[in-house]
Predict the structure.
Amino acid sequence: MRPSSIILPVALVTLGMVATQTGASFAKGLFPLVGASGATALRLTLAALVLIAIFRPWRHKLDASQWRAVLLYGAAMGAMNLLFYAAIARIPLGIGVALEFTGPLAVALAGSRKPLDFLWIGLALLGFFTLLPFGKMSGTIDPVGIALALGAGICWAGYIVFGQRAGTGGGPHTAALGVGLAALIALPFGIASAGATLIDPAILPVALGVALLSSAIPYTLDMIALPHIPTRLFSILASAHPALAALSGFVILSERLTPWQVAGIVCIVLASIGGTATIARSNSPPVA
């Protein structure tokens, strides 16, 4: 694979990550009104409506194997969002994303072969552990929130693998189907949590903004990029999520960054850049 051939996919993935973490910060403002499950349902349902209206997935035919991949992709997406929003309702955004990152990191570790790959993964791990709270702060972290974030990480790994399979031979319309399926999974939980508040006109503009930033935009960009990028590269690029979450929390939620968190951000960003440069020189095609 030529380095120039993955410049656009890498740019799309990066833009999607920025949108995701910005949307997650705004989504926390919905929690007091509709709860974590309600915010998840609103986000996915509104995003699905937007994507389905734009990409009209019913105009594209999928074979049986593609439908299986889309179903798994949508299920992983729905579970990932429900678990993650439930987690960040209990623990800080940056910590939740750092814990969730264990899923993509596991995907990266599973495909590692060269010593240099392990260098970048090790650097990402160092940043990951640096972002976690230790000492006096560790006692304030809700263990249920930690478990939920780790569960979201498992689903995130599935999102990467099944998303790549679903996107091969597909396109943005596949993302529309996946988000639609994820919305169907999340909606019953949202209705049980918030009921009629979900359709309150006062919260719909904020919910639509969250849906676009956190779901419609990043999932579409990922679906375009995933078939053209190695799984390991996508996973190492995703290591920037904790750093972006910490920055988003600082700018939008006024969460202060400690020197250790800054050090973790530097490690993770360097791991992403190094992984991109190294894996881009590989001649191996993306794994379908």
